[in-house]
Design brief:
The protein is an all-alpha fold and about 90 residues long. It has five helices and no strands. The protein has a single domain, classed as DNA polymerase, domain 1.
Length: about 90
């Protein structure tokens, strides 16, 4: 969990993007490397919070089986999906 609203370091986020499957690793890691640097601080915080979600939930959201409960997470999931044309 993030510490009192601080954004984790890029190295920490890279570690958190390493998930239980190579598919999640790729989807999250690619977005981190390519889109994260140009994101707003609000988006960066939302992404770090998104990485605290369980792998099955992330996967269901990314493949469109379910919708994330938060609007900011939905925007990120949509961006990741668009980036990879899922």
């Amino acid at each position: 969990m993030t510490d009192s609203g601080s954004i984790p370091t890029l190295g920490r986020l890279r570690w958190l993007c390493r998930r239980g499957t190579s598919e999640l690793d790729t989807l999250l890691g690619d977005w981190l490397e390519q889109d994260y640097p140009d994101s707003s601080n609000v988006e960066k915080m939302a992404f770090s919070e998104l990485l605290e979600v369980s792998d099955p939930d992330l996967w269901d959201w990314l493949i469109g089986r379910h919708v994330p409960p938060r609007a900011d997470w939905k925007e990120l999931i949509d961006a990741i999906r668009t980036h990879h044309s899922l």
